[in-house]
Amino acid sequence: MGGTPSSSSNAPSGSGGTGVTINPAILTGPVTMQVPGLQITAMTTAIGNPTEVLCLMNMVLPEELIDDEEYEDIMEDIKQECSKYGQIRSMEIPRPIEGVEVPGLGKVFIEYNTSIDCQRAQQSLAGRKFDNRIVITSYFEPDRYHRREF
């Protein structure tokens, strides 16, 4: 009425003061970021060919894995989130051992029943934040996973 602007939510996309239309796909896609000194390429697309095993990096710190209760809480949180993308066959989070260099320390390994479930998880988890850290993903060879060659 009387030429006053409407704040109706039925206004066409892009109408408003700026005249800018935002593609919703760019808001939901993975985030690419450069971290000085980090030599991993394709941070938000998993490295390698899809497998059933997904390696999640930059999610946990070794000191967070020392206390048994905190470790169990972290395992449960990650398992609950990752099970949204498919059935989890197994999961490993290597823990620190005093005086021993533990392979894979600080990484989380999730084994799905299918590589399709693993891909779905990778696409959803890459670039997301977990405890204020950006998650980096990579596919992992199932044979190495089963031999615990992290």
Describe this structure as you would to a colleague.
This protein is an alpha+beta fold. The chain has a single domain, classed as 2-Layer Sandwich (Alpha-Beta Plaits), CATH 3.30.70. The chain is built from four helices and six strands. The strands form two sheets. Strands 2-3-1-6 form a four-stranded antiparallel β-sheet. A hairpin with a 2-residue loop joins strand 4 and strand 5. The longest helix has 15 residues, at 68-82. 20% of the residues are buried. The model is unreliable at 4-16, 23-31 and 38-45 (pLDDT under 50).
Keywords:
150 residues; alpha+beta; Alpha-Beta Plaits; four-stranded antiparallel beta sheet; 4 helices; globular; Splicing factor U2AF 50 kDa subunit-like
CATH superfamily: RRM (RNA recognition motif) domain
Helix content: 10-25%
What form results from the Cα inertia axes? globular
Largest sheet: 4 strands, antiparallel
Which percent range describes the beta-strand content?
A: 15-25%
C-alpha end-to-end distance: 68 Å
Number of helices: 4
* Count of strand segments: 6
Major sheet strand order: 2-3-1-6
Could you give the order of the helices and strands? HEHEEHEEEH
User: Rg, please?
Assistant: 20 Å
Task: Round the mean pLDDT to the nearest integer and report it.
Answer: 80
Might you state the CATH topology name?
Answer: Alpha-Beta Plaits
Q: How many discrete domains?
A: 1
CATH class: Alpha Beta
Task: Specify the CATH architecture.
Answer: 2-Layer Sandwich
Question: Would you tell me the structural class of the helices and strands?
Answer: alpha+beta
Uncertain ranges = 4-16, 23-31, 38-45
Protein name: Splicing factor U2AF 50 kDa subunit-like
GO molecular function, one term: RNA binding
Domain RRM: 61-142
Keywords: mRNA processing, mRNA splicing, RNA-binding
